[in-house]
Amino acid sequence: MTLRKASNMPTLPDENVEQRLSRGLARKEPGQFDDDRETILTNPLVAAAIDGPGDRPRSFDRFEREDLDFLVRVARADIEEFERRHRHHAGLSTRLLCIALCQGAARHLVEGRGGVHDFDVWSFFRAGEGFPTFPERRRKTAVFEGSRFQASSRRIDLLGRSIEQVGDARQSVATYLAAGRTCTAWELSRRPIYVLHPEVEHPAIAALRPEAIA
Q1: What is the pTM (predicted TM-score) of this model?
Q2: What is the DSSP string of 157-195?
Q3: How high is the pLDDT of residue 213?
Q4: Nearest to 41 by CA among 143, 165, 148, 192
Q5: Residue 111, Cα to own-chain centre: how many angstroms?
Q6: 193, 35 in Cβ contact below 8 A?
Q7: Residue 161 · residue 135 · CB < 8 Å
Q8: Which of 152, 127, 135, 149 lies closest to 53, judged by CA?
Q9: CB-based contact 168:124 (threshold 8 Å)
């Protein structure tokens, strides 16, 4: 996922490394995410596309219901694996508020424009006393194999956040975005978000700080 600095993005005194990376102020050290950042590369053409230049072409294929269901299965399987590997996060899945598609892929789904570079799938968890916070720097990478999306646009980035629960899942995410207290929340709010799981009456959350891009 590429996060670009907005001219009016807030500077926070308690920024962590991931937030500083989003503003171009720090660089990831080699192997920093090795524990949980794994890439499934079973197709050499897909592997080349993932490791290729950042200006890879976009896919303008339309989403089908099975595509969204597949992204949910990938995210849920990743959460279950994370719980197994990190016992102090046991019970994380019980605090899952929602799984959502974000960034460019969500804009393509909701607004039908922009195309898809990759699939940013975010899991939002209920924060609370006694619960460890989901690691903000964690990102897992997978591949959307066998999909209609062209090879250059099949990467799935799996990320997560612990946020305050305010009403239902959709309202909680909307509140987190509106507050914009972190660089991540600010960036995510620049494009629509689409709640994939659980099913809600109005899954799309409109961009709160729309980004003026074609």
Answers
A1: 0.73
A2: EEEEEEE---SSHHHHHHHHHHH--SHHHHHHTTS-EEE
A3: 52
A4: 143
A5: 18
A6: no
A7: no
A8: 152
A9: no
Which helix (H) or strand (E) covers residue 129, if one does? none
Report, as an integer, the average pLDDT of 111-140.
92
More confident residue, 105 or 28: 105
User: 57: cis peptide before it, omega within 30°?
Assistant: no
Distance CA 95, CA 77 (A): 15
State how far the alpha carbon of 49 is from the alpha carbons of 45, 82, 118, in Å. Answer: 6, 26, 11
CB 151 within 8 A of CB 45: yes
Closest CA to 102 of 195, 5, 202, 197: 195
The pair of structure tokens assigned to 85 is 């590997």
Which range among 35-44, 110-119, 157-166 has the greatest average pLDDT? Answer: 157-166
